[in-house]
Specification:
Blueprint: H1 2-15, H2 18-37, H3 41-58, H4 66-73, H5 82-95, H6 101-117, H7 121-142, H8 146-157, H9 162-178, H10 180-183, H11 187-198, H12 207-215, H13 239-256, H14 261-274, H15 281-298, H16 302-305, H17 308-312, H18 317-335, H19 341-357, H20 366-378, H21 384-399, H22 410-421, H23 426-443, H24 457-472, H25 478-495, H26 502-514, H27 520-531, H28 540-553, H29 559-575, H30 582-589, H31 601-617, H32 629-638, H33 645-660, H34 668-681, H35 689-705, H36 712-721, H37 727-743, H38 752-759, H39 765-781, H40 783-796, H41 801-814, H42 817-820, H43 824-834, H44 840-854, H45 858-867, H46 874-885, H47 896-907, H48 915-931, H49 940-949, E1 958-963, E2 966-971, H50 974-990, H51 997-1007, H52 1012-1028, H53 1030-1035, H54 1037-1049, H55 1058-1078, H56 1088-1099, H57 1101-1122
Helix pairs in contact: 1-56, 2-3, 2-4, 3-5, 5-7, 6-7, 7-9, 8-9, 9-13, 11-13, 13-15, 14-15, 14-18, 15-19, 19-21, 20-21, 20-22, 21-23, 22-23, 22-24, 23-25, 24-25, 25-27, 26-27, 26-28, 27-29, 28-29, 28-30, 29-31, 31-33, 33-35, 34-35, 35-37, 36-37, 37-39, 38-39, 39-40, 39-41, 40-41, 41-44, ...
Protein name: Cullin associated and neddylation dissociated 1
Domain TATA-binding protein interacting (TIP20): 935-1097
Family: Belongs to the CAND family.
Length: 1125
């Protein structure tokens, strides 16, 4: 919507005729005159409205009039008419968005002067409101004056005037949201003031209520309870506004200060919980909202707050929240039976968010909370929205706790949920069906049969009856249809053995829903669930008809349907092989060839998994695929460079299962010829090197599964030896030997070592690389035979050292820890001899070997690595720092505690005099920040200054190189700057709460003006920052827009090479993506510079087209992410 708005407004602005600009300028003088005269208040108010509107839309155009506009507006702040003052504040708020610095300084100095004088309480309130309005509209400009403003506002908070206090606290809220950096030194003061006035209620005594809380029962008997004395009121009591302002200000503080979460849980959280009893409904809603904000801030922090190391250190926000759960539940318990709908909705939202942040947190408190949920579901006066919120909360609670927790309450929960399924309002029905589905899993949890002692039988009929009624209905909402199908699928899956005669009829309804285009996808998923049930539900009544329908879905142009159908067919064939006929399988097989393609590897993987299942449970059905296009498509896929990961693993499983079927024409040698035939038949090589690796892995998989397989090893050896073999044949033969030897001991092949070493002398780099890989992989199959041989060759063959080190790397990476341990000392000694090698490629391989070897015996080897930091050789220092990178992974390892204690020593090399050592230190730091942030979080205060230092362009590292008649500029500092910016990007995701975001933005700004590679990184960072820290980015927006504009408007010289045009085009697109991201920040379009840039974009056909395309891509990406199917 905002995109349409800005596009429309800026198009209109761009098309405004010149005489309209002139008219705007002409009437400004008359408006200032009308405002200043103060003769007719109604005219004055209209003039102020028009002035505010003009400043909002055309402020930049009226810049010459800004001093006179300010002069006429300032006196109106002391007008006896409150309406005049309010409209003046609005106009001034719009003025500061576009006025020059002199006008802005005049305005702020005037307000500060008047506040210091404090002539009248009435005008003081107005000036405080005005400062808050300026902060809201131009927080990035007022920040530098906060040191003068905040002490004054703090002083006025102590004056006994509730209205003034409210405005002061509202001003604090604005400062916190709009000037987060400048307000930081005062956050403690602001929090203390808010906590003081959060409880400010001089006309009311809460003591009796506190006593009543302790008397509340958990059995739900007190259902006629009608809440607190909301009827209490006092027309002169303004204290509630002060409390509301305090709650909103705390909300702002919590939302903007990620790094203070532990402090918030110590001070703010208990205070907010204590105020859940607030008597004014609007204030109470804001108190709840503030606590919700605290929980939402905690949720994204889970990734680092759940870190085991952090948990060991004691209090983390999550552990502190866990300790406060009893207080929260006690405070909410009474509120959940208030007559106020708004209050109860707040309670349900709170519980939902709490459980999302801390799954299982309410385990001990379910008996207290269930009556409150039931109260809202049964309450005749409950609104639809309240019931929906109650059901939504119940669903999240059911999903995030063990089923046994709810067993004592099922009798009370089922009737109101069943009643809601029958509710006439479709949204309530839909939510209730979702809860019913979860209740089915609670009353009979199939994944915990040993703990399943609960008798579900009394509830089956009610749940089935209410769901079947919705399942049969044709004239209901689409969402209700889908959820009725899902719920019934769960009922059959978990309770199907208790449905008796109702089961076949229900399955036939599923068959009808399968034929309906609107409900087929949901039905396929439900059938998958049923087919996978451990109850072995009898699906024979529908299989004959269902399987051909499912097969037909495979040709539909709906990817989600294809994937779900393949999953359904796989589980049906696996669990119902006796009932699946050859005709059914043939119908499915006929649809598979078009699905096997590198254009969609996930679909291909699902097809391969289905074929593997067929080979295992229906081997005879695969006899036909030899003559069909299925096998040829699979062989083509093996040659694709995109075949890797899960799809490649599925392919290997398939070939092993296929050769195991013993099908004629699909035996070991037949399949081997199909896989390797193209390499042996063609003189030309396959297009991609990856194809050879995939074929070799398939060959090895077949060989391992076939008793006669190892005999082919001799043939591969001959292929490598044969002088007439092409490089392609040698390459495949060597890789196949390596893959087979990895799992099968090939030490019985006497000439194997010689043949592989001879291949090291090949003229083809790819053959040499394959020989290196093969030697290492074969050694894994028999370490005692091959590892000493490899070590001896490394020492005795200097010319082959690099290739042999790669073989050693393969051994260390793939061999078992137990097998390697006896050789660690010898390998370590050998590697250290080569860590000072002048050749960087060799050093990198040595470093990887050292790092992976360290993981075998970290207590001994990590201190040795650390000792080499003192080496006088920069090569040795860079090798050991790089080695540390290979000790870090994203899963827990025994080395982690040891690494945490000494990684700081390795990162001190960020101060190393050698440029390359500093660069590899940054690469290692980036690996730690990405894979295991807990290692470096506590070091950021010392590391970040050195990291930021490496983002600067150093002129002493830039040199000119003469290339014939041309001079070429070489920047030796580019690689280290790129490494530094890559670290910054990683820190946004892993350590955001530890960053001074404004310092961070300073370096992002510099990066926007740097080299092509750096710009591309900083554009990505800007897009991330727009989502993570919108208020901070908004403060710096004017400084960020200019470099973006410069990139978008730069022209490439006409005589430049094609690559220059392509690079500039990609830069423009990346910059525009950043612009689109910036525009998602609320109020970003109010920036005069951004507004001007938007006009420039819309008036430039090339930029406008790029902008439109990126917006479209962004919208479609959002839609895709919402498609959970």
């Amino acid at each position: 919507m905002w995109r349409e708005t800005w596009r429309r407004e800026h198009l209109l602005t761009a098309l405004l005729p010149h005489h309209l600009w002139a008219s705007a300028i002409l009437i400004t003088g008359r408006l200032t005159s009308a405002i200043a005269k103060q003769e007719d208040v109604s005219v004055q108010l209209e003039a102020l409205d028009i002035m505010a509107d003009m400043l909002c839309r055309l402020g930049g155009l009226l810049v010459n009039f800004h001093p006179s506009i300010l002069s006429c507006l300032l006196p109106q702040l002391t007008s006896p008419r409150l309406a005049v003052r309010k409209r003046t504040i609005i106009a001034l708020g719009h003025l500061v968005m576009s006025c020059g610095n002199l006008v802005f300084v005049d305005l702020i100095e005037h307000l500060l002067s008047e506040l210091s004088r404090n002539d009248s309480m009435s005008t003081t309130r107005t000036y405080i409101q005005c400062i808050a309005a300026i902060s809201r509209q131009a927080g990035h400009r007022i920040g530098e004056y906060l040191e003068k403003i905040i002490p004054l506002v703090v002083k006025f908070c102590n004056i006994d005037d509730d209205e003034l206090r409210e405005y002061c606290i509202q001003a604090f809220e604005s400062f916190v949201r709009r000037c987060p950096k400048e307000v930081y030194p005062h956050v403690g003061t602001v929090i203390n003031i808010c906590l003081k006035y959060l409880t400010y209620d001089p006309n009311y005594n809460y003591d009796d209520e506190d006593e009543d809380e302790n008397a509340m029962d958990a059995d739900g008997a007190d259902e006629d309870y009608q809440g607190s004395d909301d009827e209490y009121s006092d027309d002169d009591d303004m204290s509630w506004k002060v409390r509301r302002a305090a709650a909103k200000c705390l909300d702002a503080v919590v939302s903007t200060r990620h790094e203070m979460l532990p402090e918030f849980y110590r001070t703010v959280s208990p205070a907010l919980i204590a105020r859940f009893k607030e008597r004014e409904e609007n204030v109470k809603a804001d108190v709840f909202h503030a606590y919700l904000s605290l929980l939402k801030q905690t949720r994204p922090a889970q990734s680092w707050l759940c870190d085991p190391d952090a948990m060991e250190q004691g209090e983390t926000p999550l552990t502190m929240l866990q300790n406060q759960v009893p207080m929260i539940v006690k405070a909410l318990h009474k509120q959940m039976k208030e007559k106020s709908v708004k209050t109860r909705q707040c309670c349900f939202n709170m519980l939902t968010e709490l459980v999302n942040v801390l799954p299982g947190a309410l385990t001990q408190h379910i008996p207290v909370l269930v009556p409150g949920i039931i109260f809202s579901l049964n309450d005749k006066s409950s609104s639809s929205n309240l019931k929906i919120d109650a059901l939504s909360c119940l669903y999240v609670v059911l999903c995030n706790h063990q089923p046994q927790v709810f067993h004592p309450h099922v009798q009370a929960l089922v009737p109101p949920v069943v009643a809601c399924v029958g509710d006439p309002f479709y949204k309530i029905t839909s939510e209730a069906l979702l809860v019913s589905q979860q209740l089915v899993k609670v009353i009979r949890p199939l994944d915990q049969p040993e703990r399943d002692t609960f008798d579900a039988s009394p509830y089956i009929t009610d749940l089935f009856t209410c769901t079947i009624k919705r399942l049969k209905a044709a004239d209901i909402d689409q969402e209700v249809k889908e959820r009725a199908i899902s719920c019934m699928g769960q009922i059959i899956c978990n309770l199907g053995d208790s449905l008796g005669d109702d089961l076949p009829g229900t399955l036939h309804i599923f068959l009808e829903r399968l034929k309906n285009e609107i409900t087929r996808l949901t039905t396929v998923k439900a059938l998958t669930l049923i087919a996978g049930s451990t109850l072995k539900i009898d699906l024979r009544p529908i299989l004959d008809e269902a399987v051909p329908i499912l097969a037909s879905f495979l040709r539909k142009n709906q990817r989600a349907l294809k994937l779900s159908t393949l999953a359904a067919l796989d589980i049906l064939v696996k669990n119902y092989s006796d009932s699946v006929t050859p005709a059914m399988i043939d119908a499915v097989l006929a649809e598979l060839p078009p699905l096997i393609s590198e254009s969609d590897m996930h679909v291909s993987q699902m097809v391969i998994s289905f074929l593997t299942t067929l080979a295992r449970v229906h081997p005879l059905s695969l006899a036909k695929i030899g003559g069909s296009s299925i096998l040829s498509e699979l062989i083509s896929l093996v040659r694709s460079p995109l075949l890797q990961g899960g799809a490649l693993s599925a392919m290997l499983e398939f070939f092993q299962a296929l050769v195991g079927t013993g099908t004629s024409s699909l035996g070991y040698m037949d399949l081997l010829r199909m896989l390797t035939g193209p390499v042996y038949a063609q003189s030309a090589a396959l297009t991609h090197k990856q194809s050879y690796y995939s074929i070799a892995k398939c060959v090895a998989a077949l060989t391992r599964a076939c008793p006669d397989g190892p005999a082919v090893v001799g043939q591969f050896i001959q292929d490598v030896k044969n002088s007439r073999s092409t490089d392609s044949i040698r390459l495949l033969a060597l890789l196949s030997l390596g893959e087979v030897g990895h799992h099968v001991d090939l030490s019985g092949q006497p000439e194997l070592k010689t043949v592989i070493l001879d291949a090291f002398s090949s003229s083809s780099e790819e053959v040499k690389s394959a020989a290196s890989y093969a030697l290492g992989s074969i050694a894994v199959g028999n370490l005692p035979e091959y590892l000493p041989f490899v070590l001896g060759e490394i020492s005795g063959q200097p010319k082959r050292q690099y290739l042999l080190l790669h073989s050693l790397k393969e051994i260390i990476s793939s061999a078992s820890v137990t097998g390697l341990k006896p050789y660690v000392e010898g390998v370590w000694t050998l590697l250290l001899k080569h860590c000072e090698c002048a050749e960087e490629g060799t050093r990198n391989v040595v470093a990887e070997c050292l790092g992976k070897l360290t993981l075998i015996d970290p207590e001994t080897l990590l201190p040795r690595l650390k000792g080499y930091l003192l080496s006088g050789s920069s090569y040795a220092r860079s090798s050991v720092v790089t080695a540390v990178k290979f000790t870090i992974s994203d899963h827990p390892q025994t080395i982690d505690p040891l690494l945490k204690n000494c990684i700081g020593d390795f990162l001190k090399t960020l101060e190393d005099p050698d440029l390359n050592v500093r660069r590899v230190a940054l690469v290692t730091f980036n690996s730690a920040a990405h894979n295991k942030p807990s290692l470096i979080r506590d070091l950021l205060d010392t590391v970040l200054p050195h990291l930021y230092n490496e983002t600067k362009v150093r002129k002493e590292l830039i040199r000119e190189v003469e290339m014939g008649p041309f001079k070429h500029t070489v920047d030796d500092g580019l690689d280290i700057r790129k490494a530094a910016f890559e670290c910054m990007y990683t820190l946004l995701d892993s350590c955001l709460d530890r960053l001074d975001i404004f310092e961070f933005l300073n370096h992002v700004e510099d990066g926007l003006k740097d080299h092509y590679d750096i710009k591309m990184l900083t554009f990505l960072m800007l897009a991330r920052l727009s989502t993570l820290c919108p208020s901070a980015v908004l403060q710096r927006l004017d400084r960020l827009v200019e470099p973006l504009r410069a990139t978008c408007t730069t022209k490439v010289k006409a005589n430049s090479v094609k690559q220059e045009f392509e690079k500039q085009d990609e830069l423009k697109r990346s910059a525009m993506r950043a612009v689109v991201a910036l525009l998602t920040i609320p109020e970003a379009e109010k920036s005069p510079l951004m507004s001007e840039f938007q006009s420039q974009i819309s008036s430039n056909p090339e930029l406008a087209a790029i902008f439109e395309n990126i917006q479209r891509d962004s919208s479609s990406a959002n839609m895709e992410s919402m498609d959970t199917s």
